[in-house]
Amino acid sequence: xxxxxxxxxxxxxxxxxxxxxxxxxxxxxxxxxxxxxxxxxxxxxxxxxxxxxxxxxxxxxxxxxxxxxxxxxxxxxxxxxxxxxxxxxxxxxxxxxxxxxxxxxxxxxxxxxxxxxxxxxxxxxxxxxxxxxxxxxxxxxxxxxxxxxxxxxxxxxxxxxxxxxxxxxxxxxxxxxxxxxxxxxxxxxxxxxxxxxxxxxxxxxxxxxxxxxxxxxxxxxxxxxxxxxxxxxxxxxxxxxxxxxxxxxxxxxxxxxxxxxxxxxxxxxxxxxxxxxxxxxxxxxxxxxxxxxxxxxxxxxxxxxxxxxxxxxxxxxxxxxxxxxxxxxxxxxxxxxxxxxxxxxxxxxxxxxxxxxxxxxxxxxxxxxxxxxxxxxxxxxxxxxxxxxxxxxxxxxxxxxxxxxxxxxxxxxxxxxxxxxxxxxxxxxxxxxx
Length: 434
Description:
Blueprint: E1 2-6, H1 10-22, E2 25-29, H2 33-40, H3 51-60, E3 64-67, H4 70-75, E4 79-82, H5 98-110, E5 115-119, H6 127-138, E6 144-148, H7 158-163, E7 168-171, H8 175-184, E8 195-198, H9 200-231, H10 235-243, H11 264-277, H12 283-306, E9 315-319, H13 334-344, E10 348-352, H14 357-360, E11 369-370, H15 374-378, E12 383-386, H16 398-404, E13 409-412, H17 419-424, E14 428-430
Parallel strand pairs: 1-2, 1-4, 2-3, 4-5, 5-6, 7-8, 9-10, 9-12, 10-11, 12-13, 13-14
């Protein structure tokens, strides 16, 4: 099958490379000439474990290519996926669909023969039908179907998520479109991956509902962590006791500085706006967003209290900047809310991150010092703040760390370490919900 992926960002590049691994002939198209040139030179514009090898394998097998020429690619395509950005629209929280609609109108003019146009981007309910209207208006004679196939990729494990999915959701309106998509995903039959076929609106809403529910679990356990600190309970034990209930499950019950990334923040806001547009209540999701914002603010207070009430003129070593490990994504990372607040009050911040420094620099105060090593970051520090649970930070040499620092404060926002062990090593240890 000939597949075109419009957009060579995170979703488009990962999905395109994986479809090529399935055996499809995939062309990733993007308007960003520098990005396409980089990909043609074997350079991967994002950090995702294993993606460079997967892309190289697809290119070597002549199954994966990159192009600026949408016309030629679409003219030969059986399926065209729209995988462009849908960022939060400034001012109102809605998903910005200008790139989706622009892609749809451009694709319409190049269609030749029956083609399935697939929304891969996360889009509000009704987007697929609007795409269909735009295509029909631009090319009344086009032979096509529009489908919705939302992605469920976790940054840091996206390839495995694609190759071994919990489910594949297909929103379709015709047997022909369903058959084309089933053929594309046929390699997953070997592992009996569930393929859930539904209508367009349901497919679009499944993605938002899923992300909002996961975000709810995070905000719930973060709110419980506050209560744990007040009453002397251990949020780890609470989460384990809850997670053993099969109806609840243990995933996403990890207390920390709040969720971030490319999905949860924008998808919760978009779902609230979708509900408002249709006259429906979304009080739970609204509370989730509020709790997440307050959790990030609470982390600033936690660090300040650990430093004796003021961070002014204190040197803080920050370990981790990205919103989660195994990615360079800084979008809505807790660091973006926490570090500026500390810097504004006079803290000297030495930051280290294995992959995120390049992305972090334009987003954080210019006063922050970026360090090439953990040793450089912690040298003469009054406190260490573990912000992101990269593996490099899970087995720190505590004796060496203590010797290198000026102070002995260790603020663990990811609950990586145990209090007894840290206190035995000579640290004033502060964590979340324990």
